[in-house]
């Protein structure tokens, strides 16, 4: 049960940090919708994010209220540190906004400035519009307040991430053994999921990426019933989780001897990763590792194949994502700090060639550099 994954003192310290940040921004209340934010402050693992859920946090040291659908009442009461729980719906449909408005009025939120989290997921547009209209001039967008505070991980969190990374490493051996011509991508993905779960991983927030053959130029392709054939080149990426803390791992493979071009793309991706990792340290701007990886890919004449970020922070995952708002990409406002955990994954995907390459590892930012959390070889897997 997630409320027991951390000590009461750790939850209290998190809440105190949030309240200090609220004071700095002149906020009287904070309304949170992202399940990662809610979990960080309460321990809740409930799936009420599928409809409407929120956490109402006062700036003063006082009770914290949560609103969620009735179906999660029992789980939240048993599993989360909340002082007041209000639920809606149940056996019949109910618009949650009138209930939300009554709670807001009862608690006095409209008398002050209210910071509101506006996540990319988890808040329906019609609910956002209604909430914005309800608060009026009191509404202050505060989407990153809690996320930014949770980027640096505690010792307990790092322990869970290390366990997830170990599960990911162990599963790569199973993946390699499952690769052979005549099997389809879905069969192999099933073996990966079976290995993850058997080793104590939960279900990752984002599905496995697994592409082969002509599909190997897809950067986030899901497995299909395509049958692997001799000569196929491809890639896999999956997440292992422990108590929702995620570690990701991505590798390239080939059935039979790879062509010179396949080896070249793999080597470019590897050198881009090395350049990125060399720039990761406490105090470095998040743009620095990105620019280093970008130079390697650009000098190879493949800038057009660099189709996404060079890496990002990893959080406890809720579908559809395990990512944090901190990205290593151009224009990022973030500075890397010791205790952050980030993925490293500069890509090269070339639709015109039907080929791609990406290696994915996670690192812990340290004072003098970073620690590679995965132990798996980054060599091309050749079957």
TrEMBL record:
InterPro entries: Creatin/AminoP/Spt16_N, Creatinase/aminopeptidase-like, Creatinase_N, Pept_M24, Peptidase_M24B. It comes from the Bacteria. Residues 161-366 form the Peptidase M24 domain. Residues 14-148 form the Creatinase N-terminal domain. It holds the Pfam family Peptidase_M24. CDD domains: APP_MetAP (cd01066). This is M24 family metallopeptidase. It comes from Bosea vestrisii. The lineage of its organism: Bacteria, Pseudomonadati, Pseudomonadota, Alphaproteobacteria, Hyphomicrobiales.
